[in-house]
Structure formats: C-alpha cells, structure tokens
C-alpha cells in the first residue's frame, strides 16, 4: 500500500527522497509528496499521479533542506487529489501515514470544534492537527507525538517531522511495517528495506507498538508502554541498485521469464546433495501433525488451495484453507496437532499477519512461506521458509506464485515421506518431477508468440470464464484473477464440474471459455464439459498438452499446447500460460500492466 520514507541527511534530501519513493512504486500509489525542514522552516510539495509529476513540480518549484519525509499514497479516505496527498501538515508538524485511523471522524469533529481547519478528506490530516494541538499546549515534539498516538485507534505506520527541528523524526508502528536505517552521520526511515537499500544495509525493524526517536546520532526505541527497548540492527542483503526491467517492456514480462531460473534456485536451496529435502530450524515433524490450516490472501490463497490437493493426496493429511480476512474474525477452533501455515509474498499482508497472531499459542507450530525473509510474518513465525523469488515489482504476482507452489510442493513431499505414505522410490520420482520443472517452464515460454496471437482475440471480450478440475481448479481461479487484475476484463474461474450448476447460463459466442486441462485422469470429464460449452455456441480455448490436443475432438476455438508434465505438479507449469495470456491481453488493451488501477502490491491495511 502506501510507501513511507524519511531522511536526516548531510546534504539536500529532496532528490534522495524521490528516488527512495521510486523504489516503493511497486506497492501501488495514486499520488506522492515530500516535506522538508530548511533553516527551521517546514515546507512541502505534492502531486497527483506518477512520481514523474512530483519530479517535474520540484524542477519548477524546488524544495531545499537536509531533513525530510516522503510518501506515495494509495487512496483509502478521499479521492486521489493534491489536497488528499501526503505529507499532511498542521502549521508546525507534517505527517506521513500508512494505515487506517478508525476513530478519525470522532477526532476530526473534536478538532473542528476547537477551530482546526481541514483541507483534505483523509484520516491522516487528523493526526497532524491533533499533534499541533499538543504543541500549542507547550509540549515538546516527542511528548506531542506520544499524546497523539495515545488517541489513535486502528492500524498505522506514522512518521512525524516538526518545524524548527531539523535533527528529529518520530516514527511509530501499530499494525503496519516500518524500519529505521542506520548510516554514518545520517539516519533513515522507510516502509521496507527496499526503499532504504541504496542508503544503508543496517536496518532495525520496529516491533508492534514501537516508537522511535530518530536523530542523526542514532535512534532510541520504546515499546507500547513507553519503556526503552533494545532492538536489533540487522544487515540486509537487498541490492542497492534500483531494480530494472533489463530490456523487457514491463516488469511483469521480466518476472514471467525469470520463473525457470528462480524456481530452480529455490529447489536447489531446499534439496540436499543426497536428494533429501532440507528445511531450516530443524524442519517440521509431520509425525506429530494431525491436520494443516493454511491461511493467505489473493494469489497466495490460491497457492494454498493448490497445496491442499497435494498434501491430502500425497501425505494423507487433512488441510483447511482459509482467506485471511475471513479466518481472523471467525474465531475458528485450532485442534491439537494443527500445523498453521501462512503464505504471503510481501510477508506484511495485514489480514494474514492478524490470522497468524490469532494462531500463535494455539497451533502446534507456526510456519510461514514468504518472499521477504525479514518481514513481520517471517519474524513472528516459528519457521520461515523464503521462496527466493527475488524482488517482484509488478503488482500482479507471477514468479512469487510459482515459487510459492514450488516450496509448498516440497513441504507436501516431505510430509508424505515422513508419514510413510510415499516409499523411497516414489518420493525420489516425485522429487525428480519437481526438479524437471525449470526445463519444462523454459519450453512453455516458447509458446509466447502463439499466446500473443490468442490474446489479441481475448482483448475484444468483456467476459471470460476459466475452467479446471482437481488441482487445476485453483489454477483456473488464478488465471481469472490475473486477467481481471491487469486487463480489467471481467473473468471468473470455476471447477469444471460446476459448469452445469449455474455458469453455463453465461455461455454464448461472445464469452471465451479457457479450459486448463493437461491430459490426466480427469481429462475425459473435462472434455465433456467443453462439449457442453461448444454445443451452446461457446468459444473454447484449450490449454493442454499434445495428447490432450489430439483427443479433444472437433470444435475447439483455440488450442495452446504445453510441454508434457507429470500430473502431480502440473499447476506450476500451467501457471505460466495463464500469466502470459493475462499479460498479452493487457498489453493489447493498453492498460498499465505493472501498476493496474486501484491495486497495491503490499496490502498492509484491512
């Protein structure tokens, strides 16, 4: 969601703030702004749209100062306008904020009654005015910030900058991530390590409820009771250079193409030289596990749905899969022997983190599957398994999804081995099937010219259906999600067997039906569903292998032939054509592929 950065520097910070915000573009935003303190005076610049708008504004109206804060906003309260853009200011204080202040209306009414004048529709401006009230009462900035924080309800990451204080920032975290970066005579604050990577490799993550008093001499940390707290300085490994497209038109295209490489890296990381699966921290004792609860949001939730098929079929363990935003408020029972698994690309997804905290102390063990090893979800887990996908910049997840699947497939195999469901030969065969996936993905990438041709037809549709059976059903949901995310075409995914229970009413010659169907034990049943579609004038795009294409029969509108793949882990391979179809359809429609409207990469608020 919103991106935050702050700098107490030794030279002009405006261009550095903008560059740091550029590294946070992947989170999604609709406006941006910065504020600085120069010669004791507080000033700011804000603009709607991409960061280039803010950069252009600063060329014509520069902002001086060696202390400053910056923000990219993803609208939650109020439309994307300059007035609603951050930083928000009330005379002597400027604030940037990620999160939602739930009691802002009550606070706003109170402040208006005291004479405060509001220029925006946001919840954040309330924070600035409240801090100014306490400053007017004679409190020092630290005390004013603390009194302000005591009044706030909801989730937030906040960063305060004060007029007359060019060597002070105050940071606070409740429910949204925030990190302090340590330099030489300089200090930094950011939403995540990516923003700070070019500036420092020494990071301290604020824990839940923490406040930080930041000066150029360092940072003092306090817990939610106001007690001094020792917080570890970690050395991070994120590259300092800005992630580039490397010749690709979009980050999404680059990240799709990277999948053979990153999946290969992940598999090599977790598979030992003797062909055993090696998990950190002593691994997982599946002989003590009676069931799994898997919780996630969005694409990560669909990775969990896929894994349910694998673990139940291979290991014989029951698996419950939940959407985090529903799970956290349902108060579900957590039986003894439950292994709770939380999947999140960013490791900061607010609902998933809340669900993890609900399970802490109830489940036998908390395991997370994340792409950011130092994220909140990883740090609060008993065992964190990085997927090693590398920085994923495009909002629509591609390599993150398939790397999640690869790591989760290893968990399924290890569970089956430990429980004696797979003998050594079967385990080895399945492991080799996984190891072969990078080569098969490379072969699938060769179908891209054919995908581009099909996508030009899909771009003319207003509605699209995806169908799949077994472990391909979650893949149908993922294909529909990708298409709607970046092309803005209405798309829905269904289990093929559910076609007659409602969705077939939507079928006509204008609605493409994309069928994800490798030639497996369920293929004949899927062909029957295809015939039902074609009998009603529907257009079927069949994504299958050579044998499936040969046996599908007549009347198929388009066929996309994938390499042969063992049935067990076919969703990893078939994710790629689903991604390519969405990508090239969006390109044909001219949408913003990497930063689609209304979406954010890291959903750190409810």
Briefly, what is this?
The protein has 606 residues and is α/β, with parallel strands linked by helices. Helix content is 37%, strand content 23%. The strands form 4 sheets. An 8-stranded antiparallel sheet has the order 3-2-4-1-10-9-11-14. A 6-stranded antiparallel sheet has the order 5-6-7-8-12-13. Strands 16-15-17-18-19 form a 5-stranded parallel sheet, with helices on both faces.
Point out poorly predicted stretches: none
From the helix content, strand content and strand pairing, which structural class follows? alpha/beta
| Residues in helix, % | 25-40%
Describe the largest sheet. 8 strands, antiparallel
Would you report the number of β strands? 24
Head-to-tail CA distance between termini: 11 Å
Number of helices: 20
Rg over CA atoms: 25 Å
Major sheet: order of its strands? 3-2-4-1-10-9-11-14
Principal-axis shape = globular
Strand content: 15-25%
Mean pLDDT: 93
Structural write-up:
With 606 residues, the protein is of the alpha/beta class. The protein contains 20 helices and 24 strands. The strands form four sheets. Strands 3-2-4-1-10-9-11-14 form an eight-stranded antiparallel beta sheet. Strands 5-6-7-8-12-13 form a six-stranded antiparallel beta sheet. A five-stranded parallel beta sheet has the order 16-15-17-18-19, sandwiched between helices. α9 (298-315) links the parallel β15 (291-296) and β16 (319-323). The chain is globular. The chain starts with a strand and ends in a 17-residue tail after the last helix. The relative contact order is 0.09. The mean pLDDT is 93.
